[in-house]
Amino acid sequence: MKLIKNVSMASGKTFKTVNILFDESIELVSTGIITADNITDEYDYSGCIVIPGAVDMHTHIFRGIPDDAQALKKSSQNAVSGGYTTLADMPYHTKKPIFRSKAIDYYTSIIEESSFCDIALWGHNDFSQFPYHIDYINEIWAAGLVGFIMMHPSPNDKIENMTYADIMDLFDTIYDTDISFAFQGYDYIDVSVNENIKEKFIEQRLVSIRKILRRMQDNPIHYIGIYDKESIDILNIAFRRSDLTYAVPAYELIKIMLKFKETGYTKDNPFSEYVKLLFDSMKNGKLYTISTEAGAELNSENPTMNVAYTGYSENLLKWTVPWVFSELWKNNRVPIQSCIRMVSENPAKRLGLFPQKGSIGKGSHADIVIIDPNIPTDTDLTDLNGGKIQLSCSVKATFLRGNLLTPIKSKNKPQGQFIKRTGTTRRKSSSTCWT
C-alpha cells in the first residue's frame, strides 16, 4: 500500500487537506491521519492539489502502420508527463479501421507493448456492409469501445463516407440503445484559391451540426473541435434537450486566451462577448471538455479536409493540463471544480469509464495527478509574438493505477492497458467531492 499525505482536494468552494491510501485502486480518502501496517511508500505533497488523472476524449495517434508503436510510446510519455492517464484514440486516418474485434486485438497488442498510459478506443461504422453493419457495431460495442466516429465527408478511403440519410438511418436503427457517437465534418465545399479555408470550414461545419441535430435521436453524441461562437451558441441551446456534449481544442482555446490577455474585456466588443460565452459555458458545464486532438497530420489534396481532420501537436499532451490550471483557474478565476470536470471527470463519464477513471474515491483506479500551483513550468507553447510561454502551475507527479510514472525515465517500462467502457456514456450529474 502507498500513502499520499497533506494534499489539498477541491471541496465545494474551498479546499480540504486529505490523505489518500491506495494500491492499484484507491482504498481510503480521509481528512484524518491514516495508519496501516503494510504501507511501503509515502509521499508528502503539502501545498499541492490532487486531481484525478486527466482523460483526453480525442487523440488520433494510430495510423494502422508499423510506426504506430513508436508514435504511441512518444505520445503517451508526453501524456503522462502532462497529467494524462487515459487517452481515447479516434483513428481517423488508419489503414486498419476498427470494424471488427480483430482490429481491437491489433491495437491492444500495440497498447500493451508501447503505451505509458491507458488507452480507450473509438470505433468505425462499416456502412459498406449494409445491412450487416449494425451487427458489427453491436459486436465491437460489446467488446468495450467508447463510441463510434461519424465523419462527413470521410478523410479515409478505408472508411466509407456517410451521407446525412445514412446517419439518419443509423440513428433510427439503434435509437433505443446507449451506443455513443462522435461527429466531425462539414458540408461539401467548393473553395476558390482566394477564400479563407478555415473560415469556410467553420461556416460549413455549422451547417453540418444543424443537420445532425435535426436527425439525432436519444443516443449520446459528442461534437469534436468546437471553437467558434455560432457553434457554441447552438450547442449550448441544444444541450438542454439533447444528450450532446462538445469539446474545445486546447490549441484553439490557448490562442483565444492569448488574444484576450492582450485586449482585455471591453464593453460591446464582439470578441469580449465571445470570451464571456466561453467562461460562462465552462462554469455551467456546457463546455464539457477540452481535448488536445493530438495526432497525425492529414495530407489531402483537399485543403478543407486537412483543416477538418489534421491533428494538433502531440506536445499539447504535455502542456494542456498545467495550462488549464494556470490560465483558466489561477489567472481567469474559472472555478477549479469546472477545470477538474473539463480535463478529467466529464470525459471519463462521457466515455463510460467513470468512476473507474475521473474520480478520487474508494474503488476508483489510483490514477492520481498532483498539481503544484506555485512552481512554474517552462513550455514550448508560444505567445502571439512568438515568445515561449511560462505557466504558473506544474504537474508534480502522475500515478497510473498506483504506480508513480514521473519523471519518465528511459528504463521505465510501458504500463498502459486497453481500457474498456464499464458504464453508460450518457451525461450524468456530478456526485464527486469537488461539487
Characterize the structure shown.
This protein has 435 residues and is α/β, with parallel strands linked by helices. Helix content is 33%, strand content 22%. It has 11 helices and 19 strands. The protein has helices at 68-81, 101-114, 133-142, 164-173, 197-215, 229-239, 250-263, 270-283, 303-309, 316-330, 336-350, and strands at 2-11, 14-22, 26-30, 41-44, 49-52, 54-59, 84-89, 118-121, 123-124, 148-152, 181-185, 221-223, 244-249, 289-291, 368-372, 377-382, 388-391, 394-400, 403-404. The strands form 5 sheets. Strands 9-10-11-12-13-14 form a 6-stranded parallel beta sheet. Strands 3-2-1-4 form a 4-stranded mixed beta sheet, with no helix packed on it. A 4-stranded antiparallel beta sheet has the order 5-15-18-19. Helix 6 links the parallel strand 12 and strand 13 (244-249).
User: Can you give the mean pLDDT?
Assistant: 93
Query: How many alpha or pi helices?
Result: 11
What is the strand arrangement across the widest sheet? 9-10-11-12-13-14
The share of residues in extended strands comes to: 15-25%
